[in-house]
């Protein structure tokens, strides 16, 4: 048996659950992969919420995720270019967030030795989407481009690809991520109203020729900056596509994945990993993703290792987090007497008790 992330209704991260399922069997042209890492994407959350239903409703129960990396443990009937034990990375159409996944061979490539499992398992969507977006713009040293959500996985890589072509990049993010963006040569700009005006202020008179909206909802600012529709790219904002002529960008193919994986392996670009969660903590992982505060990618690791004092995932919400400061009815107690002896050696309580007894004796004297 295997375990997989599933949901049976649209909604927030709380609709996700890890269920036991039969281990799938590969057919012809397919392989069975034991998944070591699977990346999370904002598109996963949008699909789970039902944002894309008009473009293709989800059939329940639905799997989650498209990108993965792992080891081939079985091949389908007939010849295969992969063998048992091969380390691979790639994508499926859905359900990548599971311990075992059947994937078409044509959607997998060999994992470069220089890539960690966490990077390999979360590179497909961010890497090929960013590559496809920047390649189509044909940027050069005279170009200035705005990238929203520039500290996220797609935005971070797109900024680096644009910088490799010599372009000036202005990237929006939370202020806490400004130094993170500066290390990639990006001019940081905070989220908030008046984006077009603030972009002009930092652009130094340079015209804005391209606008990559990976946050969603910022296409109006691009139009205000004079960016033509075909050079406004978005991954989530379908309204901008229909109303402003923006171009919807999706993930690419294995050719793009191979190219991007080699660039990351050669350290020409970097894909930072913001956090790693276990499969059992998938709800917390998506809560973190949906806050859109993580610098880089959030990943599910199927073989995570906990060391003492090492934080590999956010702590789950505890009861004290929601009850702290909330008054509750209780009987009066003498706090001093209620302190458990285990918290100390009892000397404080003994001194105070002795002092109280001494005062009572003084009061009793004639």
Plain-language structure description:
- By secondary structure, the chain is α/β, with parallel strands linked by helices.
- The termini are far apart.
- The chain has 13 helices and 16 strands.
- The longest helix is centred in the last third of the chain and has 18 residues.
- Strands 3, 5, 6, 7, 8, 15 and 16 form a 7-stranded mixed beta sheet that branches. It has a 6-stranded parallel beta sheet with strand order 11-10-9-12-13-14, with helices on both faces.
Q: What is the strand content? A: 15-25%
Main pleated-sheet profile: 7 strands, mixed
Number of strands: 16
Distance between the termini: 84 Å
Q: Based on helices, strands and strand pairing, what is the structural class? A: alpha/beta
Mean pLDDT rating:
88
Shape field: globular
Multimerization state:
single chain
Question: Which H/E pattern describes the elements?
Answer: EEEHEEEEEHHEHEHEHEHEHEHEHEHHH
How many helices does DSSP assign?
13
Which consecutive residue ranges, at least 5 long each, have pLDDT under 50?
Answer: 317-326, 335-346
Q: What is the alpha-carbon Rg in Å?
A: 27 Å
Proportion of residues in helical segments: 25-40%
Question: What is the compact description of this entry?
Answer:
With 366 residues, the chain is of the alpha/beta class. It contains 13 helices and 16 strands.
Describe how the helices and strands are arranged.
Elements: E1 2-7, E2 17-21, E3 30-39, H1 42-49, E4 62-63, E5 67-75, E6 87-91, E7 100-104, E8 108-110, H2 117-120, H3 124-137, E9 144-148, H4 153-164, E10 168-173, H5 178-182, E11 187-190, H6 195-203, E12 210-213, H7 219-224, E13 232-234, H8 238-244, E14 247-248, H9 254-265, E15 273-277, H10 282-290, E16 297-301, H11 319-323, H12 335-338, H13 347-364
Helix pairs in contact: 3-4, 3-9
């Amino acid at each position: 048996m295997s375990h997989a992330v599933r949901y049976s209704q649209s909604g927030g991260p709380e609709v996700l659950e890890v269920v036991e399922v039969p281990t799938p069997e590969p057919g012809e042209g397919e392989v069975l992969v034991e998944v070591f890492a699977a990346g999370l994407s904002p598109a996963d959350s949008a699909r789970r919420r039902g944002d894309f239903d008009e473009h293709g409703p989800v059939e329940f129960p639905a799997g989650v995720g498209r990108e993965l990396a792992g080891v081939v443990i079985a091949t389908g009937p007939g010849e295969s270019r992969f063998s048992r034990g091969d380390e691979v990375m790639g994508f499926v159409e859905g359900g990548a967030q599971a311990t075992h996944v059947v994937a078409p061979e044509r959607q997998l490539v060999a994992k470069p030795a220089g890539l960690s499992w966490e990077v390999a398992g979360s590179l497909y969507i961010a890497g090929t989407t960013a590559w496809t977006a920047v390649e189509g713009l044909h940027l050069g040293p005279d170009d200035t481009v705005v990238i929203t959500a520039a500290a996220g996985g797609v935005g971070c890589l797109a900024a680096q690809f644009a910088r490799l072509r010599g372009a000036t990049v202005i990237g929006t993010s939370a202020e806490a991520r400004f130094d993170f963006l500066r290390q990639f040569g990006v001019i940081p700009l905070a989220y908030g109203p008046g984006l077009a005006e603030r972009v002009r202020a930092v652009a130094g008179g340079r015209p804005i020729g391209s606008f990559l909206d990976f946050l969603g909802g910022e296409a109006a600012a691009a139009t205000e900056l004079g960016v033509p529709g075909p050079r406004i790219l978005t991954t989530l904002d379908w309204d901008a596509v229909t109303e402003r002529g923006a171009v919807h960008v999706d993930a690419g193919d294995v050719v793009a994945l191979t190219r991007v994986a080699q660039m990351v392996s050669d350290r020409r670009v970097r894909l930072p990993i913001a956090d790693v969660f276990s499969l059992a903590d998938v709800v917390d992982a998506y809560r973190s993703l949906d806050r859109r505060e993580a610098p880089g990618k959030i990943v599910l690791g199927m073989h995570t290792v906990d060391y003492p004092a090492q934080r590999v995932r956010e702590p789950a919400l505890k009861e004290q987090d929601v009850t702290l400061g909330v008054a509750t009815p209780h009987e009066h107690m003498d706090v001093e007497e209620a302190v458990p002896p285990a918290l100390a050696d009892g000397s404080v309580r003994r001194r105070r008790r002795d002092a109280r007894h001494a005062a009572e004796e003084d009061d009793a004297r004639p």
